């Protein structure tokens, strides 16, 4: 099979991506021949960009603002002839286009979208909702789809399906199904795209001629975003440009591409030349979202569509390439302002959850282990906020630092200074002697620093926390985070356990930002300086002796792997439901120049092995607040048997 074959298998399609564009060509009002040439130029430009599906504006073959010229057969005949030229161009270019034109059917005139693919007319979708208020007079010229007299029309010598019940299915990409609506349809109380989505459409396309008014662009953007989110779909919107008549109103050529509530691309408005925006839709992700959404898959399908098959393929002469960019840290917004907003919201969720639990128990004390590391620091700051919300004396927060064989001077000092500076009740209880005695009791060889040596310390600390909680009539606040729960990077019946796990919804890559945000938003002076040093401290369980210089010798990421990779895997394997082979592929793009494929594959295998094998810990996890769209609580988001096998997932990686 040649590289130009429309049936060519490529990794873009295999991994669920389709390349789309919203195009608003320059326009000559009432001149279909000239408009056909301009549309073909737009399609040629799109093909050069690797675009597979192009959405063009409403009535783009004639212009939307032709008025009573729509009653002239000269214009209507010219539009049909121009459509034929565009259709031929799609055959040469190897792509699919949605073209707007007036079309006479059995003596009635309809405002329609024509789907053409590789030289073939797939179908014609008439507009349903015809605006007839303010500046709009569409009912003067056009009939609504509600009174369409036939289900099939003859167009350019082809028998073509006609109606609003048409969906277009790519045979070479099962998750790619097109639904079409026209301009005002989106503004209606029940847009046709809603029923189309429930019937299987994943890519909703709107051919529009929306004019520009003050604030209308923002409203239009919100409509597109919300409809894509409501339908768990992608939405491509192409509006008529500035070449339309300016007799009383102005058009801007507003193009939008959205995916499940996120705008992926938006065109520059008010251009007189071609406005073209290109993006890639992750149909694989949309399919996963629909599978997991009971509201979506539980809704009745109101429309039984006629499904028209077509071959998506790739544009002639083009090599498919990945255009989408994937953040290395999907849990952490790249925009500083949005990141700060998220941190504030997460902090409020955590502290409110803990405050509610404190109110329910009626207790005045909580106990928390303070190590001088990020997780326990975040838990302490959240606890302090909860006490402030409830008007409780912060002395009721009992912080315990429990230095052991692996504790470094830096974390020990930071733990004590932080507690003292924040004004909570601070206690230090060394565990060396207790650990040594216990190891002697179980006849553990001296100097053998194995998993027993490490877990003995973790369990001794938890025993102390629980006993002090009994002693003070309080409860223990846990410090472990979402990433540790995913990997099982906690000691069973030790740091794995608490009475309330405030950090359990926060991934490791976000913990550092939360502490940093709190340092600058809620603290000053010495408090801020201590928090900043904690943020700069390497992540470590500190269960092995420090180096000769007294510094941390045991760094978590040297053992379990980079948390930024594990959080990337967690987000895309568990949250998005992607296959491991796809996660490997997009990780190669996201981390290009930082980790090679061998490293990524190694840590992805490690993640999968650990995620499956450590489910038994998550099955016995304490309560804790969900803060984002991903959580692993066995009572909430994630129900998985503890003896499930990772074999099929690992096999995908080879």
Q: Please list the strands of the largest sheet in the order they lie side by side.
A: 13-12-11-10-9-8-15
CATH architecture of the largest domain: 3-Layer(aba) Sandwich
Q: How many domains make up the coordinates? A: 2
* Main structural class: alpha/beta
- Strand segment count: 20
Largest sheet: 7 strands, mixed
Distance between the termini: 25 Å
In CATH, the topology of the largest domain is named: Rossmann fold
**What is the CATH C-level name of the largest domain?**
Alpha Beta
Low-confidence stretches: 1-9
Number of helices: 22
Multimeric organization? single chain
Mean pLDDT: 93
- The portion of residues forming beta strands comes to 15-25%
Q: Report Rg.
A: 31 Å
Question: Helicity level, as a percent range?
Answer: 25-40%
Supply the CATH superfamily name of the largest domain.
HUPs
